[in-house]
């Protein structure tokens, strides 16, 4: 049976997280060679030959550029960039929020994306092809009290991703952002033990959407912000 991503080179940032492990597995299952980047990550069982782990911090622009350049030097190109790096902080109103919390949300949710996108886009433009998918949040379009920094950083990520789509449509590059509701990850269950997990978004659902964006079927969709809210509407 033919794999829809056979011979594709995919880079996944945040590859060791609750969503990242599902995305890596889905891409490998469809035949892609996956380079997974995270601060702490190891190659998993059953992925040999299709998965390579890169332990790195993407918070610095020079680090991101070197990692991406090294990947292209080794594999020749990047067909898919799935940028999953993100973080959450909440519980304080805008009036109560400290500078460090606000800046951290910008660093984790926006600046890391900027660094990786700026490093990757020139390589995709030279190849005249590429797919980019970022992970926003439902809060980017429907903010709530106490999550101002998180919502603002994710809203900025949506705008950045759509801008990338517009700026690079001439080069055959698509860029889309997924807006999930609360995802059913071990970390979220730990911090919200009394929640109704059955209403949360399954990481496998987001992973399947990323596979679709990377496939031939997704070639005509760009600058989209796709809501994935689960059953908790």
How would you sum up this structure, described in words?
It is built from 6 helices and 7 strands, in the order E-H-E-E-H-E-H-E-H-E-H-H-E. The protein has 233 residues and is an alpha/beta fold. It has a single domain, classed as NAD(P)-binding Rossmann-like Domain (Rossmann fold, 3-Layer(aba) Sandwich), CATH 3.40.50.720. Strands 3-2-1-4-5-6-7 form a 7-stranded parallel beta sheet, sandwiched between helices. The protein is globular. The relative contact order is 0.15.
CATH H-level superfamily: NAD(P)-binding Rossmann-like Domain
Order of helices and strands: EHEEHEHEHEHHE
Tally of individual domains: 1
Q: In what order do the strands lie side by side in the largest sheet?
A: 3-2-1-4-5-6-7
Distance between the termini: 37 Å
Structural class: alpha/beta
Give the overall silhouette.
globular
Question: What's the gist of this structure?
Answer:
This protein has 233 residues and is α/β, with parallel strands linked by helices. The chain has helices at 18-29, 61-75, 99-127, 148-167, 186-191, 203-214, and strands at 9-13, 33-38, 51-55, 80-83, 130-135, 173-180, 225-228.
